[in-house]
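Exercise 7. Given the encoded structure of a 315-residue chain, write a plausible sequence.
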């Protein structure tokens, strides 16, 4: 792991542990700070908990004096208190200026087709279908990362669900957890998978109109949507239809910015220690969420480092 990235991650862990406060009851032999650092160290190196519990796996950047056993380490990582600390680490590293534009998208996080993971789902992925068991002819299966990305590439809100959960349903939950809108210029951008009257109404009610390409336009006649169809879709999606009818060039220009989320996902997955197909020791929804969350936190540490390097080069 890059030393500068580790320094930023370790500082965020220390701040998260302080914010979480001292646990009630008897003091633990191994601190929350140590457990969280061990977990991020293992995730950053794409290694399992047994690797993290081996003193030989540490060097000058991070060398703890004593380590818990594997079983104790796993119990501490799965505890509810540690989930709060991991969330605070993400929030600290993802902090930034308010953003008027948020982009929605999902990315498949795959497992082996012969995996026995009961939480993994069967669903659509890029180029075909994926399933949770190896009885079919598709090579992939698993979960999906659903993300809301702000300006600057920050993944401010995210969720991991089985692959067969509808993106629009998860998007509605993500919208409820976004920071308050800044003003009349706030906007949510997404691809055509998110084109929905219900989601459009949800975004409009939150003060963030939704702009997506329109689905199933091949079934719309040359005269446009019928009066009954326009009535049934609701005012929010009618506004989107009107925008595409009256200002199609402007809609296409604005939606060009949505492609930035694909580049953000590329940065998340392509760097060393980034988010790739789930390794064999990361199974079940709770473990997958922790693993993906740690990868996203490390991604934000890389973003911070890159911004600082750009500022130094510009100044």
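Solution.
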């Amino acid at each position: 792991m890059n030393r500068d990235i580790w320094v930023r991650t370790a500082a965020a862990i220390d701040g998260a542990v302080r914010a979480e406060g001292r646990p009630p009851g008897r003091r633990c032999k191994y601190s929350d700070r140590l457990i969280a650092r061990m977990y991020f160290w293992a995730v950053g190196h794409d290694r399992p908990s047994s690797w993290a519990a081996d003193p030989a796996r540490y060097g000058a950047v991070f060398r703890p004096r004593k380590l818990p056993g594997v079983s104790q380490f796993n119990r501490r990582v799965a505890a509810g208190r540690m989930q709060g600390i991991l969330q605070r680490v993400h929030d600290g590293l993802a902090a930034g200026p308010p953003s008027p534009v948020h982009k929605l998208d999902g990315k498949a996080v795959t497992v082996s087709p012969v995996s026995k993971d009961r939480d993994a789902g069967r669903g659509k992925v890029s180029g075909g279908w994926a399933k949770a068991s190896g009885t079919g002819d598709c090579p992939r299966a698993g979960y999906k990362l659903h993300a809301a990305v702000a300006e600057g590439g920050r993944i401010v809100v995210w969720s991991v669900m089985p692959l067969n959960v509808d993106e629009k349903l998860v998007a509605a939950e993500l919208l409820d957890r976004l920071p308050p809108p800044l003003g009349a210029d706030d906007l949510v951008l997404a691809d055509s998978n998110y084109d929905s009257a219900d989601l459009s109404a949800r975004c409009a009610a939150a003060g963030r109109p939704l702009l997506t390409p329109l689905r199933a336009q091949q079934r719309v006649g040359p005269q446009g949507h019928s009066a009954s169809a326009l009535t049934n879709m609701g005012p929010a999606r009618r506004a989107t239809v009107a925008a595409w009818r009256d200002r199609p060039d402007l809609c296409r220009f604005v939606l060009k910015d949505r492609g930035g989320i694909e580049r953000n996902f590329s940065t998340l997955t392509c760097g060393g220690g980034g988010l790739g197909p789930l390794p064999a020791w990361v199974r079940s929804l709770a473990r997958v969420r922790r693993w993906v969350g740690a990868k996203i936190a490390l991604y934000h540490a890389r973003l911070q480092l890159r911004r600082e390097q750009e500022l130094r080069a510009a100044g």
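Remark. Strands lie at 101-111, 123-125, 128-130, 141-149, 155-162, 187-189, 210-211. Students should compare their own answers with the one above.
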